[in-house]
């Protein structure tokens, strides 16, 4: 059975745009990419990253994989693109988060769904609202636009313009 899944990808180390593109390419080889948001630039969230602003994007994919198999795939891609896990919410080349797996709600210790910080992160909600404005959060029942309007994160998030 095919499931529509929403992924958030982002990073702030090295050639940020190249890492996003490589992550999209790797995901597209394994999954069906339905749509993607524009690329957004945002300030670091969580108070730990020090390497500068992040580039972020939200992808809508379709897969027949189970949630934990998809998690293993995303972690394999992160590792292949140089992701290290030295510090929680620290600097990274690429991060691939499973935001929604259909409307599945799970409190599994390996993979909580929907993503537990989704409604607190403007850098996720802004691109999410761009491609899925009326997607309802399966717990709160709020749409992406409603979650964005209620978000208490006021970090700067803007559409990224590639440097000339």
Give an overview in words.
- The chain has 164 residues and is an alpha+beta fold.
- The chain has a single domain, classed as 7,8-Dihydro-6-hydroxymethylpterin-pyrophosphokinase HPPK (Alpha-Beta Plaits), CATH 3.30.70.560.
- The protein has 4 helices and 8 strands.
- The strands form 2 sheets. Strands 1, 2, 3, 4, 5 and 8 form a 6-stranded antiparallel β-sheet that branches. It has a two-stranded antiparallel sheet with strand order 6-7.
- A hairpin with a 4-residue loop joins strand 6 (106-107) and strand 7 (112-113).
- Helix 3 (122-131) runs antiparallel to helix 4.
- The protein is globular, with a radius of gyration of 15 Å.
- The relative contact order is 0.22.
- The mean pLDDT is 92.
Layout of strands and helices, then pairs:
Layout: E1 3-11, H1 16-30, E2 32-36, E3 40-42, E4 54-63, H2 67-80, E5 95-101, E6 106-107, E7 112-113, H3 122-131, H4 144-150, E8 157-159
Antiparallel strand pairs: 1-4, 1-5, 2-4, 3-4, 3-8, 6-7
Give descriptors for this structure.
single chain; about 160 residues; alpha+beta; Alpha-Beta Plaits; six-stranded antiparallel sheet; two-stranded antiparallel sheet
In short:
The protein is α+β, with helices and mostly antiparallel strands and 164 residues long.
Our estimate of the beta-strand percent is: 25-35%
> Over all CA atoms, what is the radius of gyration?
15 Å
How far apart, in Å, are the first and last alpha carbons? 44 Å
Total domain units: 1
Structural class computed from helices and strand pairing: alpha+beta
**Could you list the spans in which at least 5 consecutive residues all have pLDDT below 50?**
none
Can you identify the CATH class?
A: Alpha Beta
CATH superfamily: 7,8-Dihydro-6-hydroxymethylpterin-pyrophosphokinase HPPK
Biggest β-sheet description = 6 strands, antiparallel
Any guess at the CATH architecture?
Answer: 2-Layer Sandwich
Total DSSP E strands: 8
Give me the strand/helix succession.
Answer: EHEEEHEEEHHE
Shape: globular
Total helix count?
4
Oligomer: single chain
The proportion of residues forming helix, as a percent range, comes to: 25-40%
